[in-house]
Amino acid sequence: MTTRIKVGIRVRPFLDSEKEKGYANSRVQIDEQTKEIMIAEDGRRERKTFKFDYVFTPNNNQLQVYEQANIDYLLNKVVEGYHCTIFAYGQTGSGKTHTMEGYEYELAPPKESNKEGGNSAPKPRPKQHQNPERFGIIPRAVSALFDKLKAKEGGEFNVTCSFLQIYNEKIYDLLNPNSIKQNSADGTPVLSQGLRLRWNQRDQFQVENLFVFDCKSAEEVMNFFHYGIRNRVTASHKLNMASSRSHTILTLKVESIDLSTQSSSFSKLELVDLAGSERIGQTGTEGKLAKESIDINKSLFILRQVITTLSDIHRVSNKQKDQYQHIPYRESKLTSLLKQSIGGNSYCLMLACINPNDSFIDENISTLNYASKATYIKNEPIRNDDPKNKVIKDLKQENNRLRFELDKANQHIQFVTNLNNSGSGFSSNHPPNCCLPTCQYGGGAQPSSELTPSQKARMSIAMANQE
């Protein structure tokens, strides 16, 4: 079964601070009926048109985005045993984290230094009390997934949770307290060496020594998620008060057991919040933040290369596909971990977010170009049954085949025996199925060499019909 990557575009509303500064949108138009985005480029009278699976205007709230993007369909596939991925893509400050999380952030008060007497830079953190109406895809999807698993009759399930970030092209465990610590001098994160990424025999990448926790409810998953986002590397700049400086991947793995057949399946739901592409001239970042911007842009550049290559493969003829043998998954940690999601065996939804401000028209066109290319990428989702189930199923099929052949052979032997007995002149007391040359009843079956020519002919015709 082949399916395309589904792509939705969300145009975020202006913030109050942007309205006060007089920011305007005269370049981006949205047609909800045709699901098209029209962009007015510099120096061109005609607008460039992009068509997608879903489009969301600044007036669409979080619940409408969740429902209209058909997230429930993807969750049903997870319950059925398929992998699914949802990821947000776009420029910094375009609303990706709001779409995925929906939390409000505030700047934490600076901590007094115990050793050097200085103050740390204020760090963005989620507010303690959140409005449920603002909740994004992650809280809603986690809750809905557990509801669907509990409603499934005749089965049991087990859910595990892991949460990682890719920062400066290194992988860190957001649920491991020893992975990231705060510098006692200035409050900046002190990172470990990062986790290793290894290729396994099932044609996928796996992170070594990543903490995985059993979760019995959606509340437990969200507790781990909240702990993890407090460890995520964030910073403030001109375009975003709470800018993610890393890509994060929340993974829920589900093992489902059918009690009636004792078969099991394994699936996973990956919820990905990508760091946004940045132009240093616009963000005003310097020093360490500028280096982070370079690493973010580098990994997103590889992601765009993968999207472009896969999209070209699915748009050319079979003869031309030979020139696209190399897909650069391995050139970035991010694309390595998303290999199953983009061009692999998962269902996938990409939500591309754009800023309506006319000042960011170039970034918006770039986002729409790559989102449009992603619509051509085809995945081949497969149901992830336990390998032992396949072995048992194959053995049962082989057993049924052998039983069928054995029954057919027995029927053939019985038919030939009866045919021989019909011409042997046995007494009425002779057992009809007796095939011994002699028996206590004084009769015996005639060997085929002693049959008359007519009997031999009849037997040959009957055997041919039987076959």
TrEMBL record:
<dbReference type="GO" id="GO:0007018">
    <property type="term" value="P:microtubule-based movement"/>
</dbReference>
<dbReference type="GO" id="GO:0005875">
    <property type="term" value="C:microtubule associated complex"/>
</dbReference>
<dbReference type="GO" id="GO:0005874">
    <property type="term" value="C:microtubule"/>
</dbReference>
<feature type="domain" description="Kinesin motor">
    <location>
        <begin position="4"/>
        <end position="377"/>
    </location>
</feature>
<dbReference type="InterPro" id="IPR019821">
    <property type="entry name" value="Kinesin_motor_CS"/>
</dbReference>
<dbReference type="GO" id="GO:0005524">
    <property type="term" value="F:ATP binding"/>
</dbReference>
<feature type="region of interest" description="Disordered">
    <location>
        <begin position="109"/>
        <end position="134"/>
    </location>
</feature>
<dbReference type="GO" id="GO:0008017">
    <property type="term" value="F:microtubule binding"/>
</dbReference>
<feature type="binding site">
    <location>
        <begin position="90"/>
        <end position="97"/>
    </location>
    <ligand>
        <name>ATP</name>
    </ligand>
</feature>
<keyword id="KW-0493">Microtubule</keyword>
<keyword id="KW-0505">Motor protein</keyword>
<dbReference type="InterPro" id="IPR036961">
    <property type="entry name" value="Kinesin_motor_dom_sf"/>
</dbReference>
<dbReference type="InterPro" id="IPR027640">
    <property type="entry name" value="Kinesin-like_fam"/>
</dbReference>
<dbReference type="GO" id="GO:0007052">
    <property type="term" value="P:mitotic spindle organization"/>
</dbReference>
<keyword id="KW-0547">Nucleotide-binding</keyword>
<protein>
    <recommendedName>
        <fullName>Kinesin-like protein</fullName>
    </recommendedName>
</protein>
<comment type="similarity">
    <text>Belongs to the TRAFAC class myosin-kinesin ATPase superfamily. Kinesin family.</text>
</comment>
<dbReference type="Pfam" id="PF00225">
    <property type="entry name" value="Kinesin"/>
</dbReference>
<dbReference type="InterPro" id="IPR027417">
    <property type="entry name" value="P-loop_NTPase"/>
</dbReference>
<dbReference type="InterPro" id="IPR001752">
    <property type="entry name" value="Kinesin_motor_dom"/>
</dbReference>
<dbReference type="GO" id="GO:0051231">
    <property type="term" value="P:spindle elongation"/>
</dbReference>
<keyword id="KW-0067">ATP-binding</keyword>
<dbReference type="GO" id="GO:0003777">
    <property type="term" value="F:microtubule motor activity"/>
</dbReference>
